[in-house]
Amino acid sequence: AKLLSEIESLLAFEKNTADFLNLSPLSSANLLDHFNSLKDKIIGNYKLIKEIGHGGMGVVYLATREDQQFNQRVAVKVVKNGLDTEEILRRFRNERQILASLRHPNIARLLDGGTTDNDLPYFVMEYIEGLPLLQYCDEHQLSTNERLDLFKKICSAVQHAHQNLVIHRDLKPNNIIVLHQGEPKLLDFGIAKFLNPELVGELNQTQTQFRVMTPEYASPEQIKGGHITTASDIYSLGVILYELLTGERPFKFEGKSLEQIFQTVTQSEPIAPSSVVSRKINDKANPQLAPRNQQSLKGDLDNMILMALRKEPSRRYKSVEQLAEDIQRYLKGLPVIARPNTLSYRAEKFVKRNLVASVVGALLILSLIGGITVSLRMANIAWKESSKAQKINKFLQKTFTEAPFEAKGQNLKFAEVLDTASSRVETELADEPEVKVQILTTLADTYARIGLAEKAEIKARAAVELSNQLYGETNTNTSSAVSILANIMLQQGKIDESEQQYEKLAKIEQQLSPKGSQLAGIALGYLAEISVRKGKLQEALVFQQKALEMNRRFFGEDSFAVAQNFIGLGRVNERLGNLDEAEKSFRHSLEINRKFLPSARLNFAESLLGLGSTLARLGKFEEAEKVLLESQSIFKDIQGANSMPLAEIQNYLLVMYYLKGDYQKVEAIGTETRKMFIDNGGKNTNGYYSTLDYLGVSMAKNGKVTEGESLVRESLEKRLKTAIPTDWRIFNTQNLLGVCLTEANKFDEAEKLFRESKEFFSKTYGESDYRTIESNKYLVSMIEKRDRLK
Which of 22, 185, 417, 787 could serve as a FRET partner for 3 with CA atoms 20 to 30 Å apart? Predict the structure, then answer.
């Protein structure tokens, strides 16, 4: 009866839409596309030029920047009109969140996002101009080895996604575009899955319906609607590699029913790739396939591809990294995991790698045997390293992909997964210390990334201690563990110990790489930051200069690392009172970050912030205001209108307007900023204290003396309890309290505060420092007012 009622309802509706239903499917599709088209529309800052692709839920347009800030072509993906169901919108936002979490040269970058005027979500990606994977390889007539080199880069992109707890679930050649320079780009995370459900809210990721997959490339567990892990992506990569090297897929689905497809994928075994090539050559189906392709596929490549295509997820490669490593070993003529490690097999690989030596050695049997013996020993060493990597991958795979996130209908907290892994380390890896130290380091880093600093510290200390025992202090494993421990100490506010660990890290890296290293540059940068916190500004300046020199060498002049160094140099010079040098540093960082827009918008805004602050101190208020407002706009767009970062930014505006003498504007912005800090739980931060400072002194200047004085006193009380005694901000707050007291005619207390501040700034930074001069101006102004009132 229920079904009958539904059919009758549809038939009744059909009477009013007969003309539409009489259209052919193609005409209907064209009509819908016409109504859905957003061509020539403007979304955000982008004008849509033409449609360049579409899928089940979204349309992708080529677009250009419309705000004339800079010329740039981008790809804009927006939900189709009429498909804005709650599930589709959740999936779309999920894809946007996933892209935001991934940073890899072979994954299309997310640049921007927002909602259209009719509340449809959209996001902006870099525009990828190239050819689909298979078309590119065929048109450029790439050899087997060239195709494998290209495939390794694809594996690297997928592995990066897996390391960020993302499963793609729709890997296929058409989702991989190869640029004209030969670099592949992985696209379309529309049905991807986050392994950490906390990152995607309510989206039910276990629901993988047949309509949101590509059956030709889907794994058996995907077809069956089973539990999806990273092993599913490994299967899809196996299908892609099969097709890349043979020109055919493992199974043909044309004309088959859903039930037949199900049976084929879950039960049938694919033909060995070399056999497919052999058949095609014999049938002359593809004369371009040379006989050498059949020979190159036979053996290792057959086994590697078929291992990736195994029905049982646990019998495939343990990770994409392991598959890529096997390809690399194949290209170098080394033993691969996908074939049993027999004596004859390794001897065969040795002879192939050393053909001339083997022929000569054949004349001397003893030399041949000795050579094989040495080779086998070396192979065993390499195999041991490979075995360690396999064990690490297996442990992490089990931890992060087999965890029952949706067990019993409840989300398992990611921290609980890490806790389980931590307990397994002690039981399962007791006899594997080399594997254990790697896992401990990974656990420490992961705990730190999700904010569990205490647990992170325990694992990091254990990793450092074990690595010291195994390898000694001067070792890359120890260096990595020390780096993580140092960062965790800084995260917890344990400044002294963090400084000790970063000094140790710099020392280790100096011994490992006397000419410098990337990790040494990072250590020096953090030592500079710690020195600033401790008020050791000259020392901080030296560290920043050394870090800049090192990062220029390893990353290049126009790099993010160097741009950040210039920001650090600017901050140190600003605090030292070297305002001209600070301005130069901030302008240099701005110039570098501008080249990386729009991906470097936050870095760019940070440079603007430093420059605006310095310009305000130099009295260049017009440019300072323009620069700071631009920075505020970027942070508001990215972080939101009521966020802690935006509140921090607005502090700089408060200082600028105060120095300019616009106390009304300071009070208006300061009241809003104070509320933002409170709403975001930031009442115990320097930013909040600074807001109290400039809001309070401006209120006093506007005649609200008692209320203003109360706010600045609150700030000073908090600073004296939390800051080191030589923190310059304590004395800056004293000056501002003195201004409030001057407004209240409390001259004696005001004079005392001004003289204390002047003495500190004079001894610390010199008589010509702007803070010393500022303290003296306040003192003179107070004395003049007191004399007038006598």
Answer: 22
For all residues of the chain together, what is the average pLDDT? 78
CB 460 within 8 A of CB 485: yes
CA-to-CA separations, 86 to 94, 120, 204, 207, 212, in angstroms, rounded? 12, 11, 12, 14, 16
Sign of CA dihedral 370, 375, 376, 378: positive
What backbone torsions phi and psi does residue 194 show, to the nearest 5 degrees? Answer: -85, 130
Q: What is the pLDDT of residues 125-167, one digit of tens each?
A: 888 888 999 999 999 999 899 999 999 999 988 888 887 777 8
Residues 6+ apart with CB under 8 A from 385: none
Distance of alpha carbon 702 from alpha carbon 711, whole angstroms: 14
**Tokens read off for 341:** 């490690």
Closest by CA to 59, choosing from 37, 90, 27, is 37
Q: Which two tokens stand for residue 420?
A: 């389980």
CA torsion angle for 210, 216, 219, 221 (degrees, to 10)? 30
- What is the per-residue burial (b if ≥16 Cβ within 10 Å, else e) of 122-148? bbbbbbbebbebbebbeeeebebeebb
Residue keyed to tokens 């201690």: 465
pLDDT of residue 775: 93
Q: Give the rounded distance of the alpha carbon of 752 from its chain centre.
A: 51
Those residues with Cβ within 8 angstroms of residue 535's Cβ, 6 or more apart along the chain or in another chain: 724, 726, 727, 728
* Residue bearing tokens 């105060």: 658
Polymer length of the chain: 790
Phi, psi of 557 (to 5 degrees): -60, -45
Q: Where are the beta strands (DSSP E) in 516-672?
A: none
Reply yes or no on whether the pLDDT at 88 is more than 50: yes
Q: How far is CA 763 from CA 477, 708, 753, in A?
A: 45, 30, 16
Q: Say if CB 446 and CB 468 are below 8 A apart.
A: no
Average pLDDT over residues 440-463: 82
Q: How far apart, in whole angstroms, are the C-alpha atoms of residue 729 and residue 724?
A: 10
- Separation between Cα atoms, residue 543 and residue 526, nearest integer Å: 9
Residues 484 and 443: their CA atoms lie apart, in Å, by 10
Contacts of 366 (CB under 8 A, 6+ apart): none
- What is each CA distance from 207 to 94, 225, 227, 306, 406, in whole angstroms? 14, 8, 10, 28, 11
Instruction: Answer whether 38's CB lies under 8 Å from 59's CB.
Output: yes
The one-letter code for the residue type at 678 is I
How many Å apart are CA 445 and CA 418, to the nearest integer?
11
Cis bond before residue 173 (omega within 30° of 0): no
Higher pLDDT, 662 or 374: 662
Find the Cα–Cα–Cα–Cα dihedral 487, 489, 490, 492, rounded to 10°.
130
CA angle 492/498/502 to nearest 5° reads 145
Q: What is the dihedral of CA 93, 98, 101, 107, to 10 degrees?
A: -130
**By 3-state DSSP, what share of the chain in percent is helix, strand and coil, each rounded to 5?**
65, 5, 25
Looking at residue 14, what is its pLDDT?
62
Bridge partners for 62 per DSSP: 50, 75
As a whole number of angstroms, the distance between CA 216 and CA 538 comes to 63
Question: Distance between CA 742 and CA 784 in Å, rounded?
Answer: 10
**Cβ atoms 493, 458 nearer than 8 A:** no
